[in-house]
Amino acid sequence: MMHALPSSVLFACDHNATRSPMAEGMMKAFYGTEVYVQSVGVKADLEIDGFTIAVMGEIGINLERHRARSFQELQEWGDDLSAFDLVIALSPASQRQALELTRFFHLDVEYWPIMDPTGMGEAREAKLAAYRNTREQLRTHLIDRFGPPKE
Questions:
Q1: Which helix or strand (DSSP H or E) is residue 55 part of?
Q2: Number of C-alpha atoms within 13 angstroms, CB side, residue 148?
Q3: Angle subtended by helix axes 19-31 and 50-57, to nearest 10
């Protein structure tokens, strides 16, 4: 179901190292400066991984400078959770955390069941295929929800 673009979106997953940075990067690339976009993890204990950087690079999105951060760090760094129109949780744990943190103010939290590709596949090509699959799941959800990318 397609909706108008919100003015701000926060993507959340478990570590802010794979799914949510992919979503953040694609949202920025697809819809430009019309939407303020950030991403977080329940924990920020992992750096963005090389496979994420590689598969996003394939579609012209550079995530090399992405720094993982948690919900807590988001707020410590001056982004108030209540300032976002929409939180899109990409994992069950991030959905729980978002609902917990937003129960005191009206904020829409959506859950998109996006596969976590980390730890899938043995060889490099199998791993890349899993990450591409996750990227394409996110692309489909973004376009279904917000419409075709802006030129």
A1: helix 50-57
A2: 1
A3: 20
